[in-house]
Amino acid sequence: MNPHTSSWDSNVLDGQLHRNVTKYSNFLQKLSTSSQVDKLSQLIKRERSEQLQSLDQFIEEAQTKHNSAIRKLELQRTDLTSTLSQYHSAVSVISDSNVVAKTINYDISTIDVEDKLIKKTLDFVSHVKKLKNNISVVHGALESKNYILAAKSIQEIRNVPKEILESEFAKKTVPSSEIPEEPSVLLDIWCEQFSELLRTNFLNAAKSQDVQQLTMMFKMFPMVGQDSLGLDLYSKYVCDIIAEESRKVVTGDIKKNGVFARALFHLFRIVSTIINDHSKIISSCYGVNHMIHVMEKVEKEADLQGGLVLDMFTETRKVDRFVKEITEWFSKRESIDNQDEKNNIDSDDDTRYDSDDINDNEENNSTVIGANELSNLVNEFSEMLKTWSMYAKFFSARWYEFSNIKDVDCLVPPPPILDGRFTLKLKNDNVATNFETLIMFSLNKAFTKSLLLEELPSLNNLITLKSVKHDEVSSYPISSVLEDTALLIRENLMLTVNTGQYQIFSHFLDQLAKFYQNEFLVKFLQSKFKNLQPKLTVSLALKKYVPTGASPSNSNVNSRGISPSITESYASAKLSQLGFNFRGAAANALTNFQTNLQSVVSDEEAVLAFHHFLIYINTLSLSRRFVHKLLSIEILTERPNLLRCNFPFEDNAQQLITKVNACEDLMVKQNNKLQKWAVKFLFENIVSKRIRTITTNCFINGNDNNYVSGADDFEVMPGMNEFVKKWKQNMIPFQNILYDDAYTELLTLIVEYIIKIVEQRIWLLKVNELGATKLDRELSLFIQTICWFNYTLREKFTRLTQIVLILGFDDDNFDVTTGDIKEELVSSIKWVLSPQDRIEARNLKIDKRQ
């Protein structure tokens, strides 16, 4: 067969036979001669021969494959027969093993049952034997009064299972001729007798203060099943100790300062010590869960004794009387303030908070309670509340520890604290309200005193053309009242925080914000500003204060650099208003003859008033820093766990943290309002005129608004050099005196004012190309002189700098059609100028191409 000839099965699958038949049919239709028939016959024979050969080959190959497959199947059958044989053998072995295993399991189960029965019998016999031996031991120990041995044996008898103790076997085998009673009956008799014996011995040991005997008796109560009796006796014993120790402390000199705070502290320290030390004995002998029972009993006695101490404190220190008088004083003061406010509104006169008012207030305060007595009372009151808070926290933590309650999300006062008599007494007797009244009166009283003792520093050493570097905040000139007020607020904050009472500290923060706004900002600082306003005139300059008849070198009047007190300055002002200003009469007649006199205030009085005005602005500005330090830094930042330690219950600490931040925000907000007003007054009435004067010659290069520069005058900038000189002369003293925040606020107003002036001037200029370059240099120097490194203020000049930038562009940078700059420049810079502004700015150039 031709190797290229397809196999028979391939031809069949490929349809070759069908094609051949079709071909033959076509040839038959075309036959016309015999020779064609012969050729067709030969073709058919040849192809038939080929097909037969292919078929034989296919059959041969198929037969070979079939025989091979049969041989493989035979081999697999042989392997399967072997496997089946092995499987049957294994099944037989497993079946035999199963029979053996069942037999073994039955034997083991039988042995286990017998073993359990034997052990049960052994345990029963052992318990009976132990019961008989312990009964004998107890009988002998009671006769020899060996109570410890007897109690231990009774405890072992009580540990015998009840079914064994009351079994028939025990009833028959345990009793003897010497001890004929049944075990269960005998145990009840002994427990009852032993309980009474222990009770008697415990009470006798308590009377004789025999701690060793007392402890021994206390340990034996649970051995005889009298846990409750032992705990009750122990609780009563401890309560007696607490009451006795409380009487010892309170019976001392009750007039001595702090005696009640020490008494309460000693009382709760005893209770805490008892809970700590005796919990070990109770836990080991009775179980830790029994501590709850003892703590409830002890807390009732602690509440009782603590209430007595609080009552004695309230009565001895006359708290109720003082609170009543202080409340009346606050009411009277509020009515007077309301009347004054009404009168001021009707008469359109400024409220004055001068020395006369302060003296009147001080006199009224002294009729209520003395300063030392008030301070001692508040401190002792705070210590007592602090002691209670510390004890409540300790008691609550130990309560949950002994209750085996773990992973408490937030500490909650347990019932003995929450519903205790001392807690209810604090609420019913308005203790928190009384303390709040005392603390606010103390703050107001001390603040009034600080107003009387106010001192203002001299500014003369800061009024210089040389910049003064302030290394510390305290080097800035401020009123002494601010420092005193900060100390007072800090002291009272600590007193209220230390109480650990959420209500007290929360209410104090509310009252503190009101006090800061009403007393410090309005009645003190705002009144000072308003009283100084009439003395500040537009022509007033910031210069050194030299009192009449004193040389400039002796202008500071004392070692602390304090200028004459504010009270003296006000007194001199009043004298001048009444015509007693002798220096003013001569000076005005000879040197300052004017038709428009500056009221009746002398020049040195006006200068002093100006100094004081700046000092009070500093006081305002720095008071924000003091408030932030007192509230956020000292309470929250430097001591982050202060509130959480003092206010551990529930989420009180987090609520107070939020309230501290809110209190600070409110105080700073009110402070900022007054500071903005004061700085704005300073700017509008004194600074703005000088700023307009020193900027008069700026950005002027010739006449008629022409800013055409040539090579000869390009480097000449007399107007700008003059501005730099005068700016330093006028502003360096302000920078030396004012705190950064206040100076920045003043500088912001100046910048906004200057920008309006300069922009109006630039829009009127006619500039050539060289003039534009010179204008850019002058503007850069101008901005640098004013802002220095304050980049926030520099951004306010963006509009001016962009106008000058437009003037410096080449003509090729502008679109001929629109007149505006080309698109690529528009997208490359963040413009604040509108397209029309840019077109107008370009039109300022006189040498541009049309």
From TrEMBL:
It is a peripheral membrane protein. One of its GO terms (biological process) is protein transport. GO terms for cellular component: Golgi membrane. SMART domains: Cog4. It is found in: Golgi apparatus membrane. Residues 187-530 form the COG4 transport protein middle alpha-helical bundle domain. Residues 340-355 have a biased composition (Basic and acidic residues). Residues 340-365 are annotated as: Disordered. InterPro entries: COG4, COG4_C, COG4_M, COG4_N. Keywords: Golgi apparatus, Membrane, Protein transport, Transport. Belongs to the COG4 family. This is Conserved oligomeric Golgi complex subunit 4. The lineage of its organism: Eukaryota, Fungi, Dikarya, Ascomycota, Saccharomycotina.
